[in-house]
Amino acid sequence: MCRYYHQETSMTPKVESIRYAIAFHDSGRQENGIDRWEQDSAQKCAHYLVSHPTISVQSHETTSNLITKEGRGDWGIEKRIVHDADVLDIMRPCCGHGGRTGFKEKVLRFLGSRDYDTKIDYNLYIRNQLIEECWIFINRTEEEKMNLNKSSDYIGDVIDILETTREECPLLSKYILRW
User: Fold this and answer.
1) Residues 136-159: pLDDT tens digits?
2) pTM for the whole thing?
3) I need a surface site. Which of 58, 73, 89, 95 has the fewest CB within 10 A?
4) What is the per-residue pLDDT across 82-121, written as a single tens digit (0 to 9) for each?
5) Measuring CA to CA, how many Å separate 3 from each of 13, 47, 85, 176?
6) 110 burial type by CB count under 10 A (0-12 exposed, 13-18 middle, 19+ buried)
């Protein structure tokens, strides 16, 4: 989503802040179901960023606040991307929401009516393609879950899985593999 906005709009999301917020989004979670631990996750993110002063993000507090759902009305692009990454991940079978068929598309903000300041037409084709490709990618990573848990190069192995799904996931491939 960051790369789509960056390449297709005049917006330049703060990628480093988004990466850290997504990485820590569920770090405080204690069980599946409703996420009652977003504040804990935000605190863990802020603590990590403060303890690693060489990390370049907009600010520790601003970055960690991307995790919480506070201020539901007027979210900046970074908060919407973090939210939407979490929303897409909810399709994962272990989340108990019914996979792709149980996915509530209206909650996703990306290229929808609540994606208000992108200054582009709402591209439902791209939005729907992203949802379908994320579902394919989620299934592939679920199939490889045991191998990924033992991986010494987790991100590399996940990228390898995406590489093998290039034909099935052209949008993800375009924006992730060709950056």
Assistant:
1) 999 999 999 999 999 999 989 999
2) 0.86
3) 73
4) 999 999 988 887 766 778 888 888 889 898 877 766 655 5
5) 8, 27, 13, 8
6) buried
Give dist(CA 63, CA 66) in Å, integer. 5
The tokens 């506070």 sit on which residue?
70
d(CA 39, CA 45): 10
Q: Which residues contact 104 (CB under 8 A, 6 or more apart)?
A: 97
Please, which pLDDT band fits residue 55 given cuts at 50, 70 and 90?
Answer: confident
Q: Please state, in angstroms and rounded to a whole number, the distance separating the CA atoms of residues 29 and 37.
A: 5
d(CA 104, CA 106): 6
Cα–Cα distances (Å) from 44 to 64, 68, 81, 99, 114, in that order, read 8, 12, 20, 29, 29
Q: Which amino acid is at 99?
A: G
d(Cα 15, Cα 156) in Å, to the nearest integer? 19
